[in-house]
Design brief:
The chain has 383 residues and is α+β, with helices and mostly antiparallel strands. Among the domains are: 108 residues, no CATH class; 80 residues; 71 residues, no CATH class. It is built from 16 helices and nine strands. The chain has a seven-stranded antiparallel β-sheet, with helices on one face. Strands 4-5 form a two-stranded antiparallel sheet. It is elongated and about 100 Å long. The N and C termini lie far apart (77 Å). About 5% of the residues have low confidence.
Length: 383
Amino acid sequence: MVNTKLKTIVLLTAIAAITFVQSSTARAQKQETKERSTMTWEHSDNGERMRVVIEGKAEFNDDYTDIRDVSVGGYVRIEEDHDGQSRRYEVRHSSSGQLERTYYVNGAARPIDQEARNWIAKNVLNAVRQSGIDADKRVQNIFRQHGVNGVLDEIALVGGSYAKRIYFQALLKTSSLDTAQLQRVLHEAAAQISSDYEQAQLLIDIAPVLTGKESAIPAFFEATGTIKSDYEHKRVLTALVKNNAPTHQVLVQTARSAARMSSDYEKATVLKTVAENYLVDRELSNVFFETVETIGSDYEHRGVLSTLLKKVKLNEDVLSRVLTSASHISSDYEKATLLVEASNTYSGDARLREAFLQAAGTIKSDYERGRVLSALMKNKQIG
């Protein structure tokens, strides 16, 4: 009896969780061919639904309260289910060149009176705003009239992460933001965009804009810190390093941000990117090797150190830290492979003899330890 009750409670809890997750959804889809373009956007929330379909090209009036025109053979359809009542507004451009407007309530055609016009005005604007339709043009108009603050005020009225990202990107294309404006955009994005994917897409677009605006870098990493997905987090950090001539500050903050990742693979990928751009610097060295030590996978640990070894002109201190870090690798094979590589790369550096021997001494396997000692003798680092 107790088991039956427990199963019932678990089942009801699962159903409630599924219902909660599915209570608010938004989908956007666009299909284009040489002949036709179709855009569909739909949003549902607790039984309330809005759907927009645009076939062809639509033009809106200046305040986005109605459709001004539709390309020949195309149409715009806006549907809403709200409080048990359905409404639909269609604007079609017939082959005869006529613009036809129809309005339906619960499936029955109704005249477009003042009540209908009020509904149309409200829902055309809402549909455009929430779907990201015509975002580039809208942002340009708002920016001309009200500047960056006006655009950010408009973005605050947008509900979904997808449309918010579209508006933020349109703002980036509209104007060359100064450092203070870019900082505000990053703060707003961090606060408003909940989707990891959308946040990452926006930050990847912002990464090249940071050049010459170092004061905005902390805000960039603040926004990056809101991303929970290690994969999306990694995409942002690698884009930042690869799309800029990375400064000391960028490399330090990137290595520090990577430390928060739980995935060894994603973390190692970021650290390899940092290693390829390594700057000999005490703070970077400390943060970099501290983050390396958080990698649980011996394979990924060795991979990061191997990438760093390929960096030319590493000083004795960094090489010594590579050997110390290698001694913390559990796998005898991975550890020996790294030490052999280090020996072959820096065969003439006798000052590192003691560090090599200490690291080799942590290898339990006689075979793997022999591999390392043979390499050291061959390269005249011992013997």
